[in-house]
Each structure stands twice: as structure tokens, then as C-alpha cells.
UniProtKB/TrEMBL annotation:
One of its GO terms (cellular component) is nucleus. Belongs to the HARBI1 family. Keywords: Hydrolase, Metal-binding, Nuclease, Nucleus. This is Putative nuclease HARBI1. It is found in: Nucleus. GO terms for molecular function: hydrolase activity; metal ion binding; nuclease activity. It comes from the Eukaryota. Residues 7-117 form the DDE Tnp4 domain. Its cofactor is a divalent metal cation. It comes from Aphis craccivora. Pfam families: DDE_Tnp_4.
Length: 163
């Protein structure tokens, strides 16, 4: 879960072969959103199911509202890519397989995220050779998985209200 460039939730207890959506389904972030402790929604790529809490891109935008939604969706998701890129730039060990036991790797990842948040909070610039051009919004085409059609209706209702 991101706010600005800070990370508020990290789940690092599974090996890399686990899909992001499974990790998110078992995260504290989703629990906080479902319980309305945290107000908001999650913006995810098309590999996630569209639900009342998770918003995915429209796979075939036709109307101007759907196109505006996808544009806003892409721009919002771009923050994820920027944070991940910054983390990997600051902590090079995150750019490759750690080669340690899962528990040790989890601890390393969490430590890097904590140090990253300290850098953000205290405005410590650990700017390495990060190329900002790699973080420009990009269009993508992904299949959107919906939960029995209900996700499609949820997204369309959201688009109609906001775009």
C-alpha cells in the first residue's frame, strides 16, 4: 500500500513463485480496506479480479469515459512502478535473486522498505543512476478478470460516477 512514495504494507513471507494477487488477498492492506479502517480502493493490473475494492483497467475502452478511466488508472499505477524502481535503485540487492533462505530474504526486503521509508520521511536522497524516463506512464493491454460479471458492473458504475 502506497502513499506518496512511502510504503505502508509489505508482504514478504512467500517465495517469488507466488502470484501478486494471492499475496494481496492475504495482506493486511486488503483487510483494512474491507473493514473500512482505511478509506480507499486499490488500483491493480488486469491479472487481478475487478471487485468493489480492487480496480483494474478496462480491457476494451470504447467510450470517452472508459478511455479517461484507463488513462487515470495508468497514471495512478505508475506510482507503484516508481516506488519499486526507487527501492531497487537504493537497494541493489532487490534487483536480483537474494539467494538466501525465505525467512532471511523476507527480513532483507522488509528492512529495505523500512530504510526506504526513513529516506522518504527525512528527505534523504539516495539517488543512484535512476533513469526517470523509465517511469513514464505506459499504456498496456491486459485481460481483465471479473468475478462472474459483478466486477464489470462495479467498474462501469464507478466510471459512470467519476468519469
Amino acid at each position: 500500500m502506497w502513499s506518496g512514495m512511502e510504503t505502508y504494507d509489505v508482504v514478504a513471507r512467500w517465495p517469488e513463485s507466488v502470484h501478486d494477487s494471492r499475496i494481496f488477498q492475504n495482506s493486511r492492506a486488503l483487510e483494512l480496506i474491507k473493514n473500512r479502517t482505511f478509506q480507499g480502493i486499490c488500483v491493480a493490473d488486469g491479472s487481478y479480479a475487478q471487485t468493489q475494492f480492487i480496480y483494474t483497467p478496462h480491457s476494451n475502452p470504447i467510450t470517452n469515459a472508459q478511455k479517461r478511466y484507463n488513462y487515470a488508472h495508468i497514471r495512478t499505477r505508475n506510482m507503484d512502478e516508481r516506488v519499486i524502481g526507487l527501492l531497487k535503485s537504493r537497494f541493489r540487492c532487490l534487483s536480483r535473486k537474494l539467494g538466501t533462505a525465505t525467512t532471511t530474504s523476507s527480513n532483507i526486503i522488509v528492512a529495505c522498505v523500512i530504510l526506504h521509508n526513513i529516506c522518504i520521511k527525512y528527505k534523504i536522497d539516495l539517488h543512484f543512476d535512476q533513469d526517470e524516463s523509465q517511469f513514464q506512464p505506459q499504456t498496456f493491454h491486459a485481460e481483465v478478470f471479473v468475478d462472474g460479471g459483478n466486477g464489470f458492473n462495479i467498474r462501469n458504475s464507478f466510471i459512470n460516477r467519476h468519469f
